[in-house]
Write a structure and sequence with these properties.
Layout: H1 2-16, H2 38-54, H3 58-95, H4 98-101, H5 103-121, H6 125-171, E1 183-185, H7 192-196, H8 208-214, E2 230-232, H9 239-248
Antiparallel strand pairs: 1-2
Helix pairs in contact: 1-3, 2-3, 3-5, 3-6, 5-6
Protein backbone atom coordinates (compact mmCIF):
# COMPACT_ATOMS: atom_id res chain seq x y z
CA UNK A 1 0.00 0.00 0.00
CA UNK A 2 2.92 2.36 0.71
CA UNK A 3 4.30 1.85 -2.77
CA UNK A 4 0.83 2.07 -4.27
CA UNK A 5 0.16 5.32 -2.41
CA UNK A 6 3.46 6.72 -3.62
CA UNK A 7 2.52 5.80 -7.18
CA UNK A 8 -0.82 7.62 -6.78
CA UNK A 9 1.00 10.75 -5.57
CA UNK A 10 3.30 10.69 -8.60
CA UNK A 11 0.35 10.11 -10.94
CA UNK A 12 -1.62 12.96 -9.38
CA UNK A 13 1.36 15.29 -9.82
CA UNK A 14 2.00 14.24 -13.40
CA UNK A 15 -1.67 14.47 -14.36
CA UNK A 16 -1.92 17.82 -12.61
CA UNK A 17 1.00 19.19 -14.66
CA UNK A 18 -0.89 18.68 -17.91
CA UNK A 19 -2.15 21.80 -19.64
CA UNK A 20 -5.60 20.27 -20.18
CA UNK A 21 -7.73 18.58 -17.47
CA UNK A 22 -7.17 14.77 -17.33
CA UNK A 23 -9.84 12.47 -18.72
CA UNK A 24 -12.13 10.39 -16.50
CA UNK A 25 -10.16 7.28 -15.41
CA UNK A 26 -13.17 5.10 -16.15
CA UNK A 27 -13.08 6.04 -19.85
CA UNK A 28 -10.75 5.02 -22.63
CA UNK A 29 -9.44 1.66 -23.83
CA UNK A 30 -7.19 -0.52 -21.72
CA UNK A 31 -4.00 -1.02 -23.68
CA UNK A 32 -2.09 -3.05 -21.07
CA UNK A 33 -0.81 -6.48 -22.00
CA UNK A 34 -3.20 -9.33 -21.14
CA UNK A 35 -2.24 -12.13 -18.76
CA UNK A 36 -0.55 -9.84 -16.22
CA UNK A 37 -1.63 -8.72 -12.77
CA UNK A 38 -3.19 -5.28 -12.33
CA UNK A 39 -0.06 -4.19 -10.43
CA UNK A 40 2.24 -5.24 -13.27
CA UNK A 41 -0.04 -3.56 -15.79
CA UNK A 42 -0.12 -0.39 -13.71
CA UNK A 43 3.66 -0.22 -13.45
CA UNK A 44 4.01 -0.81 -17.19
CA UNK A 45 1.50 1.93 -17.98
CA UNK A 46 3.26 4.31 -15.60
CA UNK A 47 6.64 3.57 -17.20
CA UNK A 48 5.15 4.13 -20.65
CA UNK A 49 3.69 7.44 -19.47
CA UNK A 50 7.03 8.64 -18.12
CA UNK A 51 8.73 7.80 -21.41
CA UNK A 52 6.02 9.58 -23.39
CA UNK A 53 6.25 12.65 -21.18
CA UNK A 54 10.04 12.72 -21.47
CA UNK A 55 9.62 12.64 -25.25
CA UNK A 56 7.17 15.53 -25.19
CA UNK A 57 4.09 13.46 -26.04
CA UNK A 58 1.82 14.92 -23.38
CA UNK A 59 -1.45 13.40 -24.64
CA UNK A 60 -0.01 9.87 -24.80
CA UNK A 61 1.58 10.35 -21.40
CA UNK A 62 -1.71 11.49 -19.88
CA UNK A 63 -3.57 8.47 -21.30
CA UNK A 64 -0.89 6.10 -19.98
CA UNK A 65 -1.05 7.67 -16.50
CA UNK A 66 -4.84 7.30 -16.53
CA UNK A 67 -4.48 3.59 -17.32
CA UNK A 68 -1.89 3.20 -14.57
CA UNK A 69 -4.23 4.84 -12.06
CA UNK A 70 -7.04 2.48 -13.09
CA UNK A 71 -4.86 -0.60 -12.60
CA UNK A 72 -3.58 0.56 -9.20
CA UNK A 73 -7.16 1.11 -8.04
CA UNK A 74 -8.06 -2.41 -9.19
CA UNK A 75 -5.18 -3.81 -7.12
CA UNK A 76 -6.42 -2.01 -4.03
CA UNK A 77 -10.04 -3.14 -4.56
CA UNK A 78 -9.08 -6.83 -4.96
CA UNK A 79 -6.90 -6.69 -1.85
CA UNK A 80 -9.63 -5.03 0.23
CA UNK A 81 -12.11 -7.75 -0.78
CA UNK A 82 -9.64 -10.44 0.31
CA UNK A 83 -9.03 -8.76 3.68
CA UNK A 84 -12.77 -8.33 4.31
CA UNK A 85 -13.42 -11.99 3.48
CA UNK A 86 -10.56 -13.17 5.69
CA UNK A 87 -11.70 -11.08 8.65
CA UNK A 88 -15.17 -12.65 8.38
CA UNK A 89 -13.63 -16.14 8.50
CA UNK A 90 -11.55 -15.17 11.53
CA UNK A 91 -14.76 -14.02 13.21
CA UNK A 92 -16.27 -17.47 12.67
CA UNK A 93 -13.22 -19.08 14.31
CA UNK A 94 -13.87 -16.93 17.39
CA UNK A 95 -17.61 -17.69 17.34
CA UNK A 96 -17.15 -21.48 17.35
CA UNK A 97 -14.59 -21.17 20.20
CA UNK A 98 -11.76 -22.26 17.92
CA UNK A 99 -9.20 -20.56 20.20
CA UNK A 100 -10.42 -22.82 23.04
CA UNK A 101 -10.65 -26.15 21.24
CA UNK A 102 -7.84 -25.72 18.68
CA UNK A 103 -5.66 -22.96 20.20
CA UNK A 104 -2.43 -23.70 18.32
CA UNK A 105 -4.09 -23.80 14.89
CA UNK A 106 -6.31 -20.79 15.71
CA UNK A 107 -3.32 -18.64 16.72
CA UNK A 108 -1.49 -19.75 13.59
CA UNK A 109 -4.49 -18.54 11.57
CA UNK A 110 -4.39 -15.23 13.47
CA UNK A 111 -0.66 -14.89 12.70
CA UNK A 112 -1.34 -15.46 9.01
CA UNK A 113 -4.03 -12.78 9.12
CA UNK A 114 -1.56 -10.30 10.61
CA UNK A 115 0.92 -11.16 7.85
CA UNK A 116 -1.85 -10.56 5.32
CA UNK A 117 -2.38 -7.11 6.80
CA UNK A 118 1.30 -6.33 6.26
CA UNK A 119 1.15 -7.62 2.68
CA UNK A 120 -1.93 -5.45 2.08
CA UNK A 121 -0.26 -2.35 3.49
CA UNK A 122 2.88 -3.03 1.43
CA UNK A 123 0.75 -3.62 -1.68
CA UNK A 124 2.00 -7.13 -2.36
CA UNK A 125 -1.03 -8.83 -3.99
CA UNK A 126 0.86 -12.01 -4.89
CA UNK A 127 2.05 -12.48 -1.32
CA UNK A 128 -1.46 -11.66 -0.10
CA UNK A 129 -2.98 -14.35 -2.35
CA UNK A 130 -0.53 -17.00 -1.09
CA UNK A 131 -1.18 -16.05 2.53
CA UNK A 132 -4.93 -16.17 1.97
CA UNK A 133 -4.69 -19.76 0.72
CA UNK A 134 -2.60 -20.74 3.76
CA UNK A 135 -5.10 -18.95 6.04
CA UNK A 136 -8.09 -20.78 4.51
CA UNK A 137 -6.35 -24.14 4.94
CA UNK A 138 -5.59 -23.31 8.57
CA UNK A 139 -9.21 -22.27 9.23
CA UNK A 140 -10.45 -25.60 7.83
CA UNK A 141 -8.05 -27.36 10.20
CA UNK A 142 -9.36 -25.30 13.13
CA UNK A 143 -12.95 -26.25 12.22
CA UNK A 144 -12.04 -29.93 11.93
CA UNK A 145 -10.24 -30.07 15.29
CA UNK A 146 -12.94 -28.02 17.01
CA UNK A 147 -15.67 -30.41 15.86
CA UNK A 148 -13.63 -33.41 17.00
CA UNK A 149 -12.89 -31.91 20.42
CA UNK A 150 -16.47 -30.77 21.00
CA UNK A 151 -17.80 -34.16 19.96
CA UNK A 152 -15.33 -35.85 22.29
CA UNK A 153 -16.47 -33.71 25.21
CA UNK A 154 -20.11 -34.39 24.43
CA UNK A 155 -19.41 -38.13 24.35
CA UNK A 156 -17.64 -37.90 27.70
CA UNK A 157 -20.61 -36.01 29.10
CA UNK A 158 -22.93 -38.65 27.64
CA UNK A 159 -20.98 -41.40 29.41
CA UNK A 160 -21.23 -39.52 32.69
CA UNK A 161 -24.99 -39.16 32.22
CA UNK A 162 -25.29 -42.86 31.37
CA UNK A 163 -23.39 -43.77 34.53
CA UNK A 164 -25.64 -41.57 36.63
CA UNK A 165 -28.66 -43.10 34.95
CA UNK A 166 -27.43 -46.57 35.84
CA UNK A 167 -26.95 -45.56 39.44
CA UNK A 168 -30.46 -44.13 39.62
CA UNK A 169 -31.94 -47.25 38.01
CA UNK A 170 -30.27 -49.38 40.63
CA UNK A 171 -31.68 -47.23 43.40
CA UNK A 172 -35.22 -46.89 42.08
CA UNK A 173 -37.75 -48.89 40.08
CA UNK A 174 -39.45 -45.74 38.77
CA UNK A 175 -39.59 -44.97 35.09
CA UNK A 176 -36.40 -43.33 33.83
CA UNK A 177 -36.66 -40.89 30.95
CA UNK A 178 -34.55 -41.64 27.90
CA UNK A 179 -31.48 -39.39 27.67
CA UNK A 180 -31.17 -37.29 24.53
CA UNK A 181 -28.47 -34.72 23.73
CA UNK A 182 -29.37 -31.08 24.31
CA UNK A 183 -26.37 -29.76 22.34
CA UNK A 184 -25.35 -30.68 18.80
CA UNK A 185 -22.08 -29.67 17.12
CA UNK A 186 -22.54 -28.88 13.42
CA UNK A 187 -20.51 -31.08 11.10
CA UNK A 188 -19.60 -30.83 7.43
CA UNK A 189 -22.61 -30.90 5.05
CA UNK A 190 -25.12 -30.55 7.91
CA UNK A 191 -28.39 -28.65 7.44
CA UNK A 192 -31.16 -28.00 9.95
CA UNK A 193 -33.46 -30.65 8.37
CA UNK A 194 -30.64 -33.23 8.29
CA UNK A 195 -29.81 -32.50 11.94
CA UNK A 196 -33.47 -32.79 12.98
CA UNK A 197 -33.71 -36.09 11.08
CA UNK A 198 -30.93 -37.69 13.14
CA UNK A 199 -32.16 -40.51 15.39
CA UNK A 200 -30.70 -38.99 18.55
CA UNK A 201 -32.13 -35.52 17.79
CA UNK A 202 -35.79 -35.69 16.63
CA UNK A 203 -35.82 -38.47 14.03
CA UNK A 204 -38.02 -36.19 11.90
CA UNK A 205 -36.61 -33.67 9.42
CA UNK A 206 -39.81 -31.55 9.60
CA UNK A 207 -39.05 -30.61 13.21
CA UNK A 208 -36.08 -28.43 12.23
CA UNK A 209 -37.92 -25.11 13.06
CA UNK A 210 -37.63 -26.07 16.75
CA UNK A 211 -33.83 -25.94 16.45
CA UNK A 212 -33.91 -22.74 14.41
CA UNK A 213 -36.07 -20.89 16.96
CA UNK A 214 -33.88 -22.03 19.86
CA UNK A 215 -30.75 -20.69 18.14
CA UNK A 216 -31.89 -17.42 16.58
CA UNK A 217 -28.99 -15.66 18.32
CA UNK A 218 -26.49 -17.47 16.08
CA UNK A 219 -28.55 -18.57 13.05
CA UNK A 220 -29.59 -15.66 10.86
CA UNK A 221 -30.57 -17.77 7.83
CA UNK A 222 -32.15 -21.22 8.50
CA UNK A 223 -30.57 -22.46 5.27
CA UNK A 224 -27.08 -21.64 6.49
CA UNK A 225 -25.21 -23.26 9.40
CA UNK A 226 -21.48 -23.73 9.54
CA UNK A 227 -19.05 -26.29 10.92
CA UNK A 228 -18.35 -26.06 14.65
CA UNK A 229 -21.50 -24.24 15.77
CA UNK A 230 -23.02 -25.43 19.08
CA UNK A 231 -26.77 -25.73 18.51
CA UNK A 232 -29.21 -26.03 21.41
CA UNK A 233 -31.73 -28.88 20.97
CA UNK A 234 -35.01 -28.09 22.77
CA UNK A 235 -36.35 -31.03 24.78
CA UNK A 236 -39.01 -29.43 26.97
CA UNK A 237 -41.52 -29.08 24.14
CA UNK A 238 -45.22 -29.76 23.72
CA UNK A 239 -47.17 -31.68 21.10
CA UNK A 240 -48.62 -28.36 19.93
CA UNK A 241 -45.12 -26.95 19.40
CA UNK A 242 -44.10 -30.03 17.43
CA UNK A 243 -47.18 -29.80 15.20
CA UNK A 244 -46.61 -26.08 14.64
CA UNK A 245 -42.95 -26.73 13.70
CA UNK A 246 -43.94 -29.46 11.25
CA UNK A 247 -46.54 -27.11 9.74
CA UNK A 248 -43.93 -24.35 9.29
CA UNK A 249 -41.55 -26.85 7.67
CA UNK A 250 -44.20 -27.86 5.12
CA UNK A 251 -45.04 -31.35 6.36
CA UNK A 252 -47.93 -32.82 4.29
CA UNK A 253 -49.85 -33.78 7.45
CA UNK A 254 -48.27 -31.89 10.36
CA UNK A 255 -50.66 -33.38 12.95
CA UNK A 256 -49.57 -36.96 12.11
CA UNK A 257 -46.29 -37.12 14.01
CA UNK A 258 -44.29 -40.24 12.98
CA UNK A 259 -44.23 -42.98 15.62
CA UNK A 260 -40.41 -42.98 15.51
CA UNK A 261 -40.16 -39.19 16.02
CA UNK A 262 -39.02 -37.71 19.30
CA UNK A 263 -41.86 -36.78 21.65
CA UNK A 264 -41.10 -36.07 25.33
CA UNK A 265 -42.80 -38.65 27.50
CA UNK A 266 -44.10 -36.01 29.86
CA UNK A 267 -45.67 -34.15 26.98
CA UNK A 268 -47.52 -37.09 25.45
Amino acid sequence: MKRLGFAFIILSFLLGCASNPPPDITDGPDTAAPGKTPLEQGLESMEAGLKAKAGGYDEEARNAFVQASRHFRAVDEQSRVIMHRTLAELGKVVEISGFVYAPREAFEALTLYLKMQNAYLDCEPKVLAVLEQQFNEKVLKVQEITVQEKQKRLEELGKEIAQKREEIQKQSQTDIFEVYPTIYVVKKSDTLPSIAARHEIYNDSYMWPLIYKANRDQIKDPKLVYVGQDLRIPRDITIEEIIEARREAGAPEPEKIPKEAYVPRRKK
